[in-house]
Every structure is written in structure tokens, then in C-alpha cells.
Amino acid sequence: MDKEIWRFIDSGNASPAYNMALDEALLDWHSEGKIPPTIRFYGWDPATLSIGYFQKVEKEINMEKVKELGLGFVRRPTGGRGVLHDQELTYSVIVTENHPKMPASVTEAYRVISEGILNGFQLLGMDAYFAVPKTEEERNDLKNPRSSVCFDAPSWYELVVEGKKIAGSAQTRQKGVILQHGSILLDIDEEKLFSLFHYPSERVKDRMKNAFKQKAVAINKMAARPITLDQAKKAFLKGFEEGLEIKLVPYKLTAEEQAYVEEIMDNRYSNDEWNFKR
User: Fold this and answer.
1) What are the catalytic residues?
2) What domains are defined for the chain?
3) In a 3-state reduction of DSSP, which class is residue 69?
4) Where would I find the H helices in the chain?
5) For 64-80, how does the pLDDT look when each residue is reduced to its tens digit (9 = 90+)?
6) Model confidence over 80-90: pLDDT tens digits?
7) Distances 192 to 44, 46, 189 between C-alpha atoms, Å
8) What is the dihedral of CA 123, 129, 130, 134, to 10 degrees?
9) What secondary structure letter does DSSP report for 152?
């Protein structure tokens, strides 16, 4: 049986506003039937702090430090917590909610999409598996996270290696379409990451940072040999193809499509009104 053809876009490094605008544009085009399901790989220039749709900037984020470090800043259209996009491969998946492979449940759809990421880690020789919170306390932590930092703890069906979270993802559903995007960490600078958030005291900050080191890890801390970005891209592209049983066909945006992305970028993700609205 022929495999379903999905589109694949590697948009390289781009500004935070462009990255979020392109994800939104892909969601729009897919909802209108203009494009097939799509998987996209991308990076960030400059390195960027993205925050979840519902986070409060003034309460949670140290914007002085963000500016001092020359980082980009953007509010995602998806939920979740703060992510420092630096030494990573970022991915997004755009697929209609009524696709035959997509369960109605958000959690189960997360699991299906994340099969591609799981396969990618395994192709890199890593013993990754899905996190399933077991205790009442772990389940409550998902509903009421104690930290503004995304990688502080695994959520349902996120990827872990030796008990430590190694990929973080977020999902939104709009116009009948699922948009899931996330970070696959190659390396991480914990000091930089934890300098970007507000804490009640230095003691609390140190405690959270130490706990984070026990709960999260980057690929190159666990891999038998250093993994380059190109190696990661090849592994996760193949991982998505195998995990979702699809064929990915590369695609470049047209000039008209680029103009639409830039319009969304100008109207939303480049604006303080959007990024600081809560």
C-alpha cells in the first residue's frame, strides 16, 4: 500500500516572529485544504525565549535579562511554559483533527504524533520512552505546574531517557487543525535558562535549578557520541516517516506564501500587544 504523502519544510534559522507566523500560516492553509499535512523543522536567530499563550510576562519573566543576553522573545499560540530555544532542533506538525490517524483525545493525539520523535531518538541510539505520570502528585503537577520552565517536568507522553525529559512539546487546535510544535534539545545552558525567570528568592531559584538538572537532559549529555544538528534532522525526519507511516516530500514556500507569513508576523508576533498582553 502506498504511504500517504505529507509535506516537509526545513525553514532553517529565522526570527521568533517569523517562526510562529509560519506555523500559524501552515495551520491556516491546511484548514482551507490548500496544503496536505505538514512537518516542519526550524531554528532560531537569535536564540529566543518563547512563552506559552497563557503565561504572564510581568509576573514570570525577567525581561531585563532577556534583553541583556540579546535573546529574542515571543508568545506562542500554544500553551505550556517558557522554553529557551538555543541549541536545539525545533519541529512542528500540522494535521487536521479528523485525520484517520489522529485520535479525538488531545493526549492520545499527542502520543501518535510523538511516535515520530520517539523513533528519531531510537535511530540516534537512545533508549527513549514515553512519560506517563503514575502518581496522584505527578498528575496534579501537570494541572498546576510549579515552575515557569517548560522542561521542569515531563507531561503525558513526552519523551524521556533514563527518567529525564529530553523533548518538550505543546499543542493547540484551531479551525479543525492540530498544531503541535516542540523542542528537541541538543545541548542546554541551565544557568542561562534559569536567569530568565522570576523567583521568590535565590534559594528557591537554586532549588528549582538543581531539581531541573535531575529532571531534564539534552541529547549530547546522553548520547554515546556528539550528535550534530544535521544528524538530528536526518534521524527525526526518518523517525516521523516511520512513526506516522508517511512519506515526507520537501517543499519551499512561494513568494505569495512568504508574503502571507510576513503579514501574520507584522500583525501579531512582532507586536508587543501580542507578546506582552497578559
Assistant:
1) 150
2) 4-275 (3.30.930.10)
3) coil
4) 16-31, 57-60, 63-68, 106-123, 136-143, 190-194, 202-215, 219-222, 229-244, 255-264, 272-275
5) 999 999 999 999 999 88
6) 888 999 999 99
7) 16, 14, 6
8) 180
9) G
